[in-house]
Write a structure and sequence with these properties.
By secondary structure, the protein is of the alpha+beta class. Helices cover 44% and strands 11% of the residues. Helix 3 packs antiparallel against helix 7 and helix 10 packs antiparallel against helix 11. The radius of gyration is 21 Å and the shape is globular. 37% of the residues are buried.
């Protein structure tokens, strides 16, 4: 997602006023920052004593999520559906295995404060943790967890909206690159022409997901669309509790959840590492994540979706390369940068990862075919 760092300060009395808008149990006694998210501002609300839960208070960044009502409708539908599935399965400790959002006094799952900011609250899941690094063990658990997440939502009765329209539409990203090249507002195109030529040459084959969708061959599912290992919560024993950060849950191809995880997790280095010779597609992470993902999606994944998972693994570094390069050409207006050529370094990194993933395509297909 976009690196939109929206910071502000709020007085303690204002916190109290906002918290009073939600139907929580217990007396709130302290509010403190929680996590290091780049989109929403998140706080932990501690309550008095041990009889009532603590809570998570978030300010929803409506500059990113334009339609907050639709956003929260999506989340309400998804969490309610998952909770019902867990109840039918006889799952214990359900409140730790699906997020619980708190209604506001207006009956909605968010509150708009007088200053125009949007807020929501959920129950804090105690004794849970997240991880930022990916090991083969966690990759397998992540694959199964995200696969199960999709599986539980296959039969969602309500139509969900796109909280970020065309978020993973590769044809749109190609057009945006073409527009940026035509405008060349910062006179940077000449210096990056070799990268542009590679992307243009491969754009038709990499846009096949949208063509398959129009031809009726590829369905859209309810997907998470931000599948990073730190978007799962683990219990004290390292077992997955639930998937979190549901703002991007919306209709998409399964390629979104599968390919985007591997884009970040299967790169040997960070996406902005300037040492291109160190970039590479980690097949150990691929095998572990794929094994878990195929287990989690076994009850619904079609053959065409399964056959194109190697394509998905290459699609997302290709798409991200386009997005970074487009932003560089446009003058770095979307992604936050730390130095002048940061987006260009990111683009070169992702191009190298794309090429590495493509070089492993045959091996990826053979591994997927070997799993019954």
């Amino acid at each position: 997602m976009a690196v939109v760092n929206f910071k502000y300060y709020i007085m303690e009395e204002q916190f109290k006023s906002i918290i009073r808008q939600f139907s929580i149990k217990g007396v709130p006694v302290e509010v403190k920052p929680l996590g290091n998210g780049l989109i929403n501002d998140t706080f932990k609300v501690l309550t008095l004593g041990n009889q009532n839960p603590d809570y998570v208070l978030q300010r929803i960044n409506h500059e990113v999520f334009k339609d907050v009502d639709m956003l929260m409708h999506n989340i309400e539908v998804v969490t309610t559906h998952i909770r019902q599935k867990l109840e039918v399965q006889g799952t214990t400790d359900i409140n730790r295995k699906v997020l619980t959002f708190i209604p506001s006094v207006n009956g909605k799952y968010y509150f708009k404060s007088p200053d125009g900011k949007y807020w929501r609250m959920m129950v804090f899941i105690s004794k849970a943790k997240t991880f930022d690094s990916v090991t083969p063990e966690y990759a397998c658990q992540a694959g199964k967890a995200f696969g199960n997440f999709e599986s539980m939502l296959v039969d969602v009765p309500d139509q969900l909206g796109e909280t970020i329209p065309d978020f993973h539409n590769i044809e749109l990203r190609v057009r945006q690159l073409q527009d940026a090249v035509t405008a060349d507002v910062k006179d940077r195109v000449k210096a990056v022409k070799p990268i542009i030529e590679v992307l243009v040459a491969d754009s038709y084959k990499m846009c096949k997901s949208e063509r398959m969708y129009r031809e009726g061959k590829l369905p859209k599912r309810i997907c998470h669309c931000d599948t990073k290992v730190n978007n799962m919560m683990f219990d004290e024993n390292g077992n997955v509790l639930c998937v979190i950060d549901l703002d991007t849950v919306m209709p998409s191809f399964v390629f979104s959840d599968y390919g985007d995880f591997l884009r970040t997790a299967a790169n040997f280095v960070a996406e902005d590492d300037p040492h291109i010779d160190r970039v590479g597609f980690n097949m150990d992470i691929f095998r572990s994540f794929t094994r878990g993902y195929l287990e989690g999606t076994a009850d619904f994944l079609t053959q065409i979706e399964r056959d194109n998972l190697p394509y998905a693994a290459a699609l997302f570094p290709f798409m991200q390369c386009i997005r970074f390069l487009t932003d560089y050409i446009n003058g770095d207006v979307y992604y936050k940068i730390k130095y002048l050529e940061h987006n260009l370094v990111r683009a070169r990194n992702q191009l190298a990862l794309y090429r590495s993933a493509c070089s492993h395509g045959k091996e990826m297909k053979e591994y997927i075919d070997s799993i019954s």
